[in-house]
Amino acid sequence: MSNGEQSPLLGEGPSLGQQARIYRRAPVARATIYGILTAVFVVALILGSVYWEKLGGYVGHLPKDPEKAAKRLLDVAPIIDGHIDLPILARSRFRNNATAVDLNGELYGHVDIPRLRKGQVGGFFWSTYVGCPKEDQVGEDYLNATWLVRDTLEQIDIAMELIQKYPNTFEFVGTSTDVMSAIRRGRIASLLGVEGGHQLGNSISVLRQFYRLGVRYVTLTHTCHNAFADSCGMEPGIKPRWNGLSSLGKVLIEEMNRIGMLVDLSHTSDDTARQALRHSKAPVIWSHSSARAVHDVPRNIPDDVLSLIGTDDTRTDAVVMVNFAPYFVAEEGKADVAAVADHVEHIAAIAGRKHVGIGSDFDGISSTPKGLEDVSKYPALIAELYRRGWNRFELSGLTGRNLLRVMAGAERVAQDLQAMGLEPKYDVYDKRLDL
Ligand SMILES: [Zn+2]
Fold first, then answer.
1. pTM of this prediction exceeds 0.90
2. Which of 86, 153, 300, 353 could bond to 348 as cystine, CB 3.0-4.6 Å?
């Protein structure tokens, strides 16, 4: 028998006969072990296939079902919306009385806490918006006294009052790392944005004060031109004032770069956007804008501007956060989840998937796309893009990481410029005669 040949030739211990018995038992033991291992493997395989989606979750894979996939993704990469107009709703309906605004109940409009939670929102920019003055009110050089700066302070105030009223829900933040830590604590990171250069009272000092109050982006224009830049208006054919940025507008961008205030190009004219992209040392944003090639309105971004966005040396890093306003999304009656997804995909096709985000404009729009009626519906858009083949990295970029990258980039530029000792800008609007 072969076992005898394999037994040790010499040595103490068991006799050859005993050894033979031991070795005869070995194949049986081996077979048993193999058997057990095979059984364990088969059971693991069966369990694995049954619980594949659950197991996948632990290593980051998304379930096949788009709705489940969206939910799973948003659990770890929640929505950070670039533009929500809750403060103007508080002004127009509640006279800026935070006591009267019950965000725990079902609030008029598109936003309240139950719906924010349902929509898996991790943060948003509270837009502190004040409408454009009438041209005859402000004068052709924008010099007449207005209440715009007061009203903006009131909008910052109501945003802050609402944020502080719900400390277990909202956390006021000012940096990309603060956004992430608020989300980790289960809070909704709350940032402030000012929606128009007209709200600066032609003054770079006011810009700095808004930053000190926590504002982290200023939209260069709303629907009116101002001392800094041209707007795209609402209808085509608006006559430019500066053919883009004014000289003060360029200084404004330089100061925004220095202090870490994001340059927001939504609402600006195409020339303003092109020049700002060239002039800004920091990454920029479109807080709530869509694609003109998909739906041709002035508020949307043309392809040649989108093609200036990128992370190589010849382009500027940016994130375009897609607007849900039906008027900007599609022809009347045709705005739905798929149409909004078309905008996301078009911007991604030209600028890259690292350069899209979400800027719904909720509470700032009078109607909504079908399927995206309020802040509880974001998962439908994520599910739609998952269905179209977007992977979890691309989707988490869309939901917030692209915006965080741009914010971190602007923060770095500000640190660098300040470390270089760059002086604050003290330029005064040249049409002003009082200073
Ligand atoms: Zn707007």
1. no
2. 353
What integer pLDDT is reported at residue 46 of this predicted model?
75
- Is position 373 annotated as part of the catalytic site? no
What pLDDT, on a 0 to 100 scale, did the predictor assign at position 6?
Answer: 44
pLDDT, average across residues 189-215? 98
Question: Domain 66-419: what homologous superfamily?
Answer: Metal-dependent hydrolases (3.20.20.140)
CA-wise closest residue to 290 among 229, 395, 360: 360
- Among the listed residues 225, 288, 343, 355, the single catalytic one is 288
Q: 55, 378 in Cβ contact below 8 A? A: no
**In terms of Cα–Cα distance, which of 303, 214, 249, 241 is closest to 425?**
249
* CA–CA gap between residue 323 and residue 104 (Å, rounded): 26
User: Which one from 81, 85, 264, 384 is the annotated catalytic residue?
Assistant: 85
Choosing from 110, 198, 222, 295, which is the catalytic residue? 222
Buried b (16+ CB within 10 A) or exposed e, 419-435: eeeeeebeebbeeeeee
Let me know if 361 is a catalytic residue.
Answer: yes
The pair of three-digit structure tokens given for residue 176, joined into one six-digit string: 């990309």
